């Protein structure tokens, strides 16, 4: 019934929207998050005009990232349609991201096209990725395993660093704010001209904060934590790319990304010590882009990614080192206006951990995928199929089919159906006295329908979806192997239905944007709403922008949530922020951001404090 009601509401909205839009042409439009019709790569693995993308997506552009000030990557994602987060404190604390109600580990993270996940936990280290060296971000919702394999059940978040193109550009910024927060970054990028073009980019950042006390008064274990010392962090990062087009249509290059987050946290102990959680995230890739014929493009890439976690306490130094070697050959063949895509990939994942009694394992996945993208006048179509053959585990086959139709050049609908999977992590499979090697993959089946209307005056998108996830892996104290007190087990199923709405209006110097998500993320084995997820959440923002200045206000709202096992009630909240920038001289800009201006007390994980009212100001240089 919930699924039918969502689709019925969409049908009614379609009729109403068509009538309203026929009368509306006096205001100018912009996408809810950035420029009109950006180029989206992640939804198809190829550059595609946003207007032709059939998957549900959010694009976060360079301007929005520059306006984020002291906000972390996770805090910026919290302000987007379809995204919820949890956090155990401030910007440097362990965090999770939920796309359209799915678990955090069911989101695949790519950095410049390279996987960035812990092979041990199966989740990304969100807190280790600095926002200030990111150029733009693409969020693709729904199962994308037919393009990317394991983990992409809830969707994919791809982070892009700067790519050099055109005359040399130099930029730098520095700022200071509440909680002793300081952030500085610098970048240089561009390309040579003429034959054998060289493209280059280099960015670096350093930030730190004294922080605040993260243990809330309602924390049930408060007596075992240090509640007087503040918990700070340091975060550093760098990214670089270098390539040469050695012949027309032939490019050879390399790319590097490396970051470290060192966050303090209170250790659960009667002696109440302070620990340091260190996360190192890095990706490296060599690539060759080749235009073999007029209709055949090839990308050959050898990549490696690391996720190293280290928990330092006065009595322990547990280290977990995850590594993935990924070999990819992608071929894009144009057939008229259509595109055929063939991908072969080999991934060798390994983990070494000194935690507990230790863990050392490796695993190989061989993958083959094919996709067809169709474009015929008012019709769009995508179909994709992928097989992932995992060592000692067997093949996993996923697919996706999507169709879109333009009623007018501005008004489009689409229907999507896709399947996804998440293979068990090394921890779930092999950790001593907990892992179970016979675990099944988590699997999903997702269907959705969407409406999109966009002119120079107005932009709105409405998506109804239903995602069924089976074989959820959870902690269990029953049905475990002999000698286990608890274990990982495929004990749960989830059903997530929802409606996601986003849009924007612009008139002259003013713009207004907003989003609203109504969802029902249910654990079908218990009947409870999934932990740390709300049934309703949304965002609203307005901005006044001229050629030399911009001033904006925004709000994030979320209904009540529960922590694990339907306990740990967290009330709903609304937080509001202000931001602005002013170009006071050629290439020089003053900027500032005031987050949580009303000092709202709220929680994103039960028993943990979040930042109160906090201010950040700085100066930026950007060569124009």
TrEMBL record:
<dbReference type="GO" id="GO:0015889">
    <property type="term" value="P:cobalamin transport"/>
</dbReference>
<dbReference type="Pfam" id="PF07715">
    <property type="entry name" value="Plug"/>
</dbReference>
<keyword id="KW-0732">Signal</keyword>
<keyword id="KW-1134">Transmembrane beta strand</keyword>
<dbReference type="InterPro" id="IPR037066">
    <property type="entry name" value="Plug_dom_sf"/>
</dbReference>
<dbReference type="Pfam" id="PF00593">
    <property type="entry name" value="TonB_dep_Rec_b-barrel"/>
</dbReference>
<keyword id="KW-0798">TonB box</keyword>
<feature type="signal peptide">
    <location>
        <begin position="1"/>
        <end position="22"/>
    </location>
</feature>
<keyword id="KW-0675">Receptor</keyword>
<dbReference type="InterPro" id="IPR000531">
    <property type="entry name" value="Beta-barrel_TonB"/>
</dbReference>
<keyword id="KW-0812">Transmembrane</keyword>
<keyword id="KW-0998">Cell outer membrane</keyword>
<dbReference type="InterPro" id="IPR039426">
    <property type="entry name" value="TonB-dep_rcpt-like"/>
</dbReference>
<dbReference type="GO" id="GO:0006811">
    <property type="term" value="P:monoatomic ion transport"/>
</dbReference>
<protein>
    <submittedName>
        <fullName>TonB-dependent receptor</fullName>
    </submittedName>
</protein>
<keyword id="KW-0472">Membrane</keyword>
<keyword id="KW-0406">Ion transport</keyword>
<dbReference type="GO" id="GO:0009279">
    <property type="term" value="C:cell outer membrane"/>
</dbReference>
<dbReference type="InterPro" id="IPR036942">
    <property type="entry name" value="Beta-barrel_TonB_sf"/>
</dbReference>
<comment type="similarity">
    <text>Belongs to the TonB-dependent receptor family.</text>
</comment>
<dbReference type="InterPro" id="IPR012910">
    <property type="entry name" value="Plug_dom"/>
</dbReference>
<keyword id="KW-0813">Transport</keyword>
<feature type="domain" description="TonB-dependent receptor-like beta-barrel">
    <location>
        <begin position="182"/>
        <end position="597"/>
    </location>
</feature>
<feature type="domain" description="TonB-dependent receptor plug">
    <location>
        <begin position="59"/>
        <end position="156"/>
    </location>
</feature>
